[in-house]
């Protein structure tokens, strides 16, 4: 989720003169209303009715990012890219804070064509990313509880699902339970200065450290855990950092994340190298257009990699 350009932001409550609004001590400006019955504007409730997929891929995108979704469908988001493994891809979006109404028809058309968009009626802003993730968890728990695994990814990644499935998830084994992995952050804490984009006020999260959590660009969890995360999120104060918040949910469930093999999830950009990229799951900071230009080479039989 990190440095994607944030849409024009709405004024926070604390920028509104104190006289203009009654005080609302229980919720801070960065905390969207939650729990709250956000409604699905676009949904795919029957996608998983016939057969539960091995993996549900949830990709966070902004409503106007039609081109990004098109590139992702043809590259790492291709549902048939891992032979013998059923993958179900869904894009997660909210409502554009300025162009919500004109984009509605565009999104409806794209949705009718591809049947892979979930949209709820919250504003699609940086500080609402947690709602986007929770919408995905809600969908899995309501409409696809039999999925073995769930991957949440941001748009700006290079993702190698074949390696994730073959190396970490191993479909020949019984699905893991209460399992989550990715790039694990330990002993990190909230930034308290308002100068940061990722600033978290003490009123929103009082502790100085977060429980261990998986970095937001891409993480994987077992299907059973997606439902538990969604359920426990209804009972916790929401944090605008979606990845830390999922770690807090696990902590509240008495669970924790599992470290991944070293070098498999990369939070820094690495230069493209077919052999190297074929032995990792994720590299952050790859835009969809760039992945689109690399993908034929990555998928091609052109380069033979040493065993
Ligand atoms: C997805 O991958 C399959 C198998 O490699 C390929 O036949 C298909 O054209 C791809 N689909 C898209 C939309 O690129
Ligand atoms: C999050 O979405 C809610 C519902 O649309 C909206 O009221 C709120 O202003 C948004 N919060 C932020 C920080 O953008
Ligand atoms: C916050 O700190 C308290 C007191 O040390 C601890 O009991 C609690 O588990 C912590 N919460 C999280 C989410 O780490
Ligand atoms: C395969 O290799 C040849 C020779 O190096 C190159 O011209 C061609 O573009 C490559 N094909 C792909 C799909 O990268």
From TrEMBL:
Record region (Disordered): 1-32
One Pfam family from the record: B3GALT2_N
Protein EC: 2.4.1.-
Metabolic or biological pathway: Protein modification; protein glycosylation
Membrane-topology descriptor: Single-pass type II membrane protein
Broad class of the protein's primary localization: Golgi
Gene Ontology cellular-component terms listed: Golgi membrane
Gene Ontology process terms (BP): lipid metabolic process; protein O-linked glycosylation
UniProt-listed Gene3D superfamilies: 3.90.550.50
GO MF annotations, alphabetized: N-acetyl-beta-D-glucosaminide beta-(1,3)-galactosyltransferase activity
Record keywords: Glycoprotein, Glycosyltransferase, Golgi apparatus, Lipid metabolism, Membrane, Signal-anchor, Transferase, Transmembrane, Transmembrane helix
InterPro entries, per database record: B3GT2_N, Glyco_trans_31
Cellular location(s): Golgi apparatus membrane
Biased amino acid composition, Pro residues: 1-10, 20-32
Enzyme class: transferase
Annotated ranges, domain Beta-1,3-galactosyltransferase 2 N-terminal: 35-56
Family stated for the protein in its record: Belongs to the glycosyltransferase 31 family.
Protein name: Hexosyltransferase
Species, as recorded: Anas zonorhyncha (Eastern spot-billed duck)
